Amino acid sequence: MKMRLSALLCLILLPLSSTTLSAQVSESQSDKSFADEKIINDYESTRIAMRKYGKESAPATKDGSFRLTTYNIENLFDAHDDPSLTGRNDDADEAKPEHQLIATAMAIRAVNPDILCIEEVESEQALLEYRDTYLADMGYEHVISIDAGNDRGIENSVLSRFPITNAKNWPNKPLGGVHPEKYGNNKNWYAGEPIAFRRSPMMVDVAIPNADGNDSWTLTLFVMHHKSGFYNSYWREAEAKGTLELIQDVLKSDTDRAVVVLGDFNAQVTDESVQTYLRAGFVDIFANHEEDRQSITHESGRRIDLILANDAAIKQMDTEHAFVYGTAARPDGTSWRDLETFDGYASDHYPVSVDMKN
Predict the structure, then answer these.
(1) Which residues contact 232 (CB under 8 A, 6 or more apart)?
(2) Angle between the 5-12 and 37-50 helix axes, to the nearest 10 degrees?
(3) Do the bridges between strand 305-309 and strand 283-284 make them parallel or antiparallel, or are there none, so unpaired?
(4) How far is CA 15 from the centre of its chain?
(5) 341-342 and 2-3 as β-strands: parallel, antiparallel, unpaired?
(6) What number of other Cβ atoms are within 10 A of residue 189's Cβ?
(7) Cα(306)–Cα(319) distance, rounded to whole angstroms?
(8) Which of 207, 95, 202 is nearest to 162 (CA)?
(9) Which residue in 47, 70, 123, 30 sits closest to 308, CA to CA?
(10) What global pTM score does this model have?
């Protein structure tokens, strides 16, 4: 069900003067041609009132730096029916509602990333339509989105202000072993089948201009959306091991390459799938942050959207000021089954960002 803004806010919205509100809205949202100004102000009021996790505002990117962000945008399906998606995966009625499109765009504009890695995108066509409608003035000239081999039709994508020089993924790549008989106490739908990437990671090389304007260096990103589900930890662990093998292949030819693994891990840092990356030398950019509500990345109260960097990448990062940008969340004790969406709602995940030196 969708609750209207007025009905929801009459219970919880804190009063905001117009002066206070205008101060809260990021300067990067100053071009409001993507939506009516009143809608933007209303949605910003909702975001402030209903933010449970993450920071209330995004800091500006420092001179000589660029911003890298990961954001699970939650089901960015367009209004065009994809005939290849049928049955329980039919997308005919799955278009992301306009109020969510506006709210996610507001979050992206507030964070203002130079490289934006996005999870849960239907297709490059859907991404381009979204960019051209809601982010047209943001400078995202370089776009990549590749079919990840997922039967639900979602894939990983990148919007970038810097050139993308290479992109690759490995749909349905076998990872060794077979699925167990049980999913918890229930039968496993995939029992006995070979384990493969549920959604292939996407490797992207981005040409980062040096601060002095001369030449550039390559940043390699592995954009992830690991398998969800509490009892699918074995699957995530296999995906992590398979991804590390792909990363090692990259580093064989360039041992000094800066590599970042980022996205929706569907696991917390203490879980074995994430520990697999950390034991291989990757560093969680929030490792030295206090675990509090400002570091939570998902509406459930978990930190599952991560940015992990190897030594070459971490040296370029300002991890001290890495941040999660908070957007409106459902009230405590309310699930998506009780309140599917509401005006001002963007996604059940929040954008996670870190600045890097050019």
Answers:
(1) 183, 266
(2) 40
(3) antiparallel
(4) 31
(5) parallel
(6) 8
(7) 12
(8) 207
(9) 70
(10) 0.90
C-alpha of 309 from chain center: 16
φ, ψ at 354 (rounded to 5°): -145, 145
Per the rule left: phi > 0, alpha: psi between -120 and 50, beta: everything else, 213 is: left
CA angle 32, 38, 42 (to 5 degrees): 110
Q: Is 33 exposed, middle or buried (0-12, 13-18, 19+ CB in 10 A)?
A: exposed
How far does the chain reach from its first CA to its final CA, in angstroms? 45
Q: Exposed/middle/buried for 21, CB within 10 Å: 0-12, 13-18, 19+?
A: middle
The long-range contacts involving 310-313, CB below 8 angstroms and separated by at least 24 positions, are 310/258, 310/259, 310/260, 310/281, 310/282, 310/283, 311/281, 311/283, 312/256, 312/257, 312/258, 312/259, 313/219, 313/258, 313/259, 313/260, 313/356
Which two tokens mark 10? 């009459």
Distance CA 356, CA 61 (A): 9
The domain locations on the chain are: 2-357
Positive or negative CA dihedral for 278, 284, 287, 291?
A: negative
Residues near 130 by Cβ (< 8 Å), separated by ≥ 6? Answer: 76, 78, 101, 105
Instruction: Tell me which residue of 212, 216, 226 sits closest to 264, measured CA to CA.
Output: 226
Q: What is the CATH number of domain 2-357?
A: 3.60.10.10
Phi and psi for 225 in degrees, rounded to 5?
Answer: -145, 85
Contact 106, 73 (CB under 8 A): no
Tokens of 111: 């964070």
User: Two tokens at 54?
Assistant: 């993450």
Instruction: Give me the tens of pLDDT residue by residue for the chain, a chain 358 residues long.
Output: 454 444 444 444 433 433 333 344 444 455 657 889 999 999 999 999 999 999 999 999 999 999 999 999 999 998 665 555 444 444 445 799 999 999 999 999 999 999 999 999 999 999 999 999 999 999 999 999 999 988 778 999 999 999 999 999 999 999 999 999 999 999 999 999 999 999 999 999 999 999 877 899 999 999 999 999 999 999 999 999 999 999 999 999 999 999 999 999 999 999 999 999 999 999 999 999 988 999 999 999 999 999 999 999 999 999 999 999 999 999 988 988 899 999 999 999 999 999 999 9
